[in-house]
Amino acid sequence: RRDCLSSTTCFDSVLGGVGSMKLQPLSRPKCSSVGPKTLSSQSHNVIVCPRQSRHARPQFVVRRAAEADAGTEVEVTQAEAAPAPQPAPAADAQGMDPAAAAAAAAAAAAEGAKAELTAELLSREVARRRNFAIISHPDAGKTTLTEKLLLFGGAIHEAGEVKARRASRHATSDWMELEKQRGISITSTALTFEYAGVQVNLLDTPGHQDFSEDTYRTLAAADNAVMLVDGAKGIEPQTRKLFAVARLRKLPIFTFVNKMDRPALNGFEIVEQLEKEFGLQSYPVNWPIGSGDRFCGVYHRPTKKVVLYERKGKARGRAGREYELTDPELTALIEPDLMEQLQEDIELLEVLGDELDHEAVLRGDITPMFFGSAMTNFGVELFLKSFIDAAARPGAANTRTGVEVSPTSTNFSGLVFKLQANMDPRHRDKVAFVRVVSGRFEKGMKVKVARTGRVVTLAAPQRMFANERQTVTEGYAGDVIGLTNPGAFAIGDTLVTGPTLAFPPIPTFSPELFSIMRCAPNQKKAFIKGVEGLLGEGAVQVLYSTDEYVVDPILAAVGQLQFEVVQYRMKDEYGVDTTLEPMQYTIARWVKAGWPAVEAAGRMFNTQVVKDGYGRPVLLFRNEFALNQVLADASEKLGELSPFALPPDV
After folding, report:
1. Does 497 have pLDDT greater than 90?
2. What does the DSSP 8-state code read for residue 378?
3. C-alpha distances in angstroms, 530 versus 5, 337, 422, 543, 574?
4. How far apart are CA 501 and CA 503, in angstroms?
5. pTM (2 d.p.)
6. Whole-number CA gyration radius for the chain
7. CB 145 within 8 A of CB 172
């Protein structure tokens, strides 16, 4: 012990000279306080006890462990105990000694092996991800198809068929009370399930045209789009609008013709509609055998086999046996006229092409087409299998500066594409939906918000299953993760761990309806809280008067149903009764040159100047004529007027 010595330096010298030691007290009283201690040594262990002398330099009794039994003692002075100088190791050609060079080489090899292992893990996980959004006209069966895909994926065991408002079961993807009452989808929902070793991330979107902006934001997070078509009605108005949005995103599009268990159009009529309406070539992967109550199966073109379906029992909708087209058994299983029609259709299909061009599918030039019935499960599992094989994997994403970000990059990056408030009615929570773009997401990691530079710890990541949640520990490109929003995130935000980068922002489109929302004075506090919660998630756009004494928000929406949803949620989630006062405006334009341009333009007739949530000037026009008149009178002073707005790079 150092307090037994008059010189700690001497004790350190002995330790350095004899190597690691085992200290053991001898029989002398002055050594009784020294406790035994064992240290590893490559040479030998020794037992050391200090002797103190009033006049002499400290001395030590050193006894080799091997000689302890014989009791041999050797007295060593401080000078003798001092370590002999060791010759310096020879330096290598770069001036580094061999030991240091070896350590550096080992460290470099370890880092290389770790990087190689990480790259392999990222590549493997990204390759098994599939991500898609479903788009359709209302009542085409989108929610039902979503439920059945979850059913085949094993994510649920009983699908909530959407048949009537009073149904006891409701669709898993429709979590909001208003959705259950009306039997429609109002919000986008993220659902995840595993199928055949592949993780599928399904983004269920609203079918109603009033929510096309929410659909566009959801498509910003999707790698593929599944367009659902009603077999009896063909292409419908909302299908056209949503298809244009998907085309804008340049997504691969898969077409599922639904409701073949009801009287339906001829398959070739729908093929022709797709080509005329969208200029989109189609490749029927399977072809229906009959329709309505005579719909009994499909002809699968890649395998050239007929797949018949079970109609009764627990196996209802499951694919039964597969038959060669020449199998004599088919004549007993398929009605003669249907069999004859099938053979004629197959001959015509050969004109459309023999093989599916996968590269053209990924470019969005060709849509694989499938026929089936989500309600009866006919054709759903066959579609799922084919989709997993042909769908685009998570790919590279471009930043605002044109830099390409690989999904297997070791740096994490993600895009906030949706905000949702009050998914859990027991808590007034805010959830930000993030699409992982690159790297590996880990629970508890720190990320930077590119827009603000703020660093946020992602302590409670969740995977959403409608309004149900599961804690997520990791995620890879293509995954959708829910993050508790502390007020740090906005729609279109980029989250990063490496060098700061930003993905293209998600635009806000021009609304067509405007109303002032008011409440009773005694509910003002809850009203303000509800406005911040609901309008912050993008349910509708919010504008404000330039008069500082007018604080009531102006709601701006694409359709009337958006207003109804906001009013319902204000009452249901915040207990606030609201009234809406319609405004006689139908067009909004953002002034890109800012407030100086508005002041320079002066007074404008049939126009109201308001500001958006970022304080930027917005002009409201009564009609197209009023817009053209202002452009003719003050276009030079106002500069460019934009029909959409991007979040500022603050």
Report:
1. yes
2. B
3. 74, 61, 10, 15, 6
4. 7
5. 0.70
6. 36
7. no
pLDDT exceeds cutoff 70 at 164: no
The pair of three-digit structure tokens given for residue 630, joined into one six-digit string:
């202002």
pLDDT for 85 beyond 70: no
Which residue type occupies 29?
P
Of 65, 19, 11, 14, nearest in space to 39 by CA: 19
For 151-178, what is the HEC assignment?
HHCCCCCCCCCCCCCCCCCCCCCCCCHH
Write the single-letter amino acid at 413: S
pLDDT at 75: 41
- Spatial separation of the C-alpha atoms in residues 132 and 202, rounded to whole Å: 5
d(CA 613, CA 647): 10
Instruction: Taking the CA atoms of 593, 595, 597 and 598 in sequence, report the sign of the dihedral they define.
Output: positive
Question: Residue 411: phi, psi to the nearest 5?
Answer: -85, 130
Task: Report residue 226 as tokens.
Answer: 């599944």
User: How far, in Å, CA of 415 to CA of 438, rounded?
Assistant: 10
């797949």: which residue's tokens? 307
State residue 494's pLDDT score. Answer: 93
What are the residues facing 599 on neighbouring strands?
Answer: none
Nearest residue to 543 via CA among 614, 440, 625, 488: 614
CB 649 within 8 A of CB 502: yes
Structure tokens at 625: 């004529």
* Residue pair 202/134 in contact by the 8 Å Cβ criterion: yes
**Residues 23 and 6 sit within 8 Å (Cβ to Cβ):** no
DSSP class of residue 234 equals B
Query: Tell me, what's the pLDDT at 331?
Result: 84
Q: For residue 425, what pLDDT band results from cuts at 50, 70 and 90?
A: low
pLDDT of residue 273: 92
Contacts of 449 (CB under 8 A, 6+ apart): 455, 456, 488, 489, 493, 494, 495
Rounded-to-integer distance, Cα 411 and Cα 405, Å: 9
For residues 235 and 205, is the Cβ–Cβ distance under 8 A? no
Do 462 and 505 meet the contact criterion of CB atoms below 8 Å apart?
A: no
CA 22 to chain centre: 59
Give the residue among 251, 252, 132, 141 at the shortest CA–CA distance from 207.
141
Rounded to an integer, what is the distance from CA 445 to the centroid of its chain? Answer: 16
In this prediction, residue 43 carries a pLDDT of 39
Tokens of 476: 């890879």
Instruction: Identify whether the C-beta of residue 619 lies closer than 8 Å to the C-beta of residue 585.
Output: no
Residue 127, burial from CB neighbour count under 10 angstroms (0-12, 13-18, 19+): middle
Long-range contacts of 340-349 (CB under 8 A, 24+ apart): 342/287, 342/289, 342/299, 342/306, 345/267, 345/268, 345/287, 345/299, 346/287, 346/299, 348/268, 349/284, 349/287, 349/301
208's tokens: 């109603």
Distance CA 555, CA 538 (A): 11
Residue 248 has pLDDT above 80, yes or no: no
* Span 112-131, pLDDT tens digits: 666 666 888 999 999 999 99
Which tokens in the block code for residue 203? 């983004």
Task: Indicate the range of 149-163, 251-265, 530-544 predicted with least confidence.
Answer: 149-163
- Phi, psi angle pair for 126, to nearest 5°: -65, -40
CB 409 within 8 A of CB 403: no
Torsion of the alpha carbons at 41, 47, 51 and 56, rounded to the nearest 10: -50
State the Cα–Cα distance between residues 410 and 362, nearest whole angstrom. 25
Quick one: pLDDT at residue 621? 95
Tokens of 573: 């989630």
Output phi, psi for 431, to 5 deg.
Answer: -120, 135
User: Quick check: 90 pLDDT over 70?
Assistant: no
Helix (H, G, I), strand (E, B) or coil at 65: helix
Tokens standing for 561? Answer: 């149903």
